[in-house]
Design goal:
By secondary structure, the protein is mainly α. Helices cover about 45% and strands about 0% of the residues. It is built from 4 helices and no strands.
């Protein structure tokens, strides 16, 4: 687990907002298929670095906006989401 992955999974609501790196990894582990850990990890890191940044995330351009509670809140009323 990486800090980018933790931030993205918290914002997506996949792990509780109070999760530590270790607790988040344990709670996500059963939901990731064999062989999918590496690609998922790398893609979440890339998303966290480029789009779901710690400050000033680019929610409007996020491919996961439709399923992201945090992104929906941040773009509400900006003409992006009804």
């Amino acid at each position: 687990m990486d800090t980018h992955v933790l931030r993205v999974t918290k914002r997506l609501g996949l792990v509780p907002a109070t999760s530590s790196l270790a607790k988040a990894a344990l709670s996500l582990e059963p939901h990731v298929g064999p062989g999918d850990h590496g690609p998922l990890h790398l893609n979440l890191i890339r998303l966290g670095r480029v789009v779901c940044r710690p400050r000033n995330p680019l929610c409007a351009g996020c491919p996961l906006l439709a399923v992201c509670p945090e992104g929906k809140r941040s773009t509400k009323g900006k003409g992006r989401i009804a």
